[in-house]
């Protein structure tokens, strides 16, 4: 018993050491507080300007507290005919949700196959996935992809924005690495011994273990899809936009209406805040779990 206690104390931390290691000093706390203020101030100022008038927005010094014109600005935003902002919000939600669900499903399936199944050519296929991450296919493939959309007659339709992003090479690679760490081979073999099929192993064994990683990937894909601008600008019509192209049209229609631009930008950011608030615990848990395993 004495040897065991001594061994644990020698191999672990001494009493009181843990508090000293993790206790941040005043300078560290001050630097972190300053970093938070610097990072959050632009977002805060954007919402402040969304509640002001144009006359108040160009005051010197600029206002730092919210005003009382938010409802009026939102009404003007939705009434702007050239921007189709409400249509852009709905279209972006449809595109982002569809692409995120597809990427999560395909990435977890491919990650399970690459990490836990043995088949001929698996390493070559995974290498091809890595190659797609190294080449900027979106920039290099705009012209042939647009020609394909024209040939299919999909220009101006949401499926032209959805289809090219249903598979994500980074998502496949990320879920492959996460599956290797989160799902032990012994667990898969035990399910096989119990008579579970490959689909049952994926649904009952793999997916529950991948939830933290799926949450992180879902947030990254949703944000990337929601903020996509170049391809929707090329392939969609002005009367059927996504939210980012709506803001671009708003900028053209109201070049000097700074409050309108701030209001549109603030409205486009709100869904991202909602996603993070709803799934924040799973996202942070997935990031922390990955950091601990790394």
UniProtKB/TrEMBL annotation:
For the keyword Transmembrane helix, the answer is yes
Q: Which organism encodes this protein?
A: Streptosporangium carneum
Ranges annotated as spanning the membrane: 27-47, 83-112, 124-146, 158-178, 199-223, 258-279
The record's subcellular location field reads: Cell membrane
This protein's GO CC annotations: plasma membrane
Q: Where is it mostly found?
A: membrane
State the protein's name: Sugar ABC transporter permease
Instruction: Report keywords, A-Z.
Output: Cell membrane, Membrane, Transmembrane, Transmembrane helix, Transport
Transport listed as a keyword: yes
Q: Where is the ABC transmembrane type-1 domain?
A: 89-279
- InterPro entries referenced in this protein's UniProt entry, alphabetically: MetI-like (IPR000515), MetI-like_sf (IPR035906)
The Gene Ontology biological process annotation of the record reads: transmembrane transport
Q: What family does the Swiss-Prot or TrEMBL record give for this protein?
A: Belongs to the binding-protein-dependent transport system permease family.
Q: How does it sit in the membrane?
A: Multi-pass membrane protein
Q: Pfam families under this entry?
A: BPD_transp_1
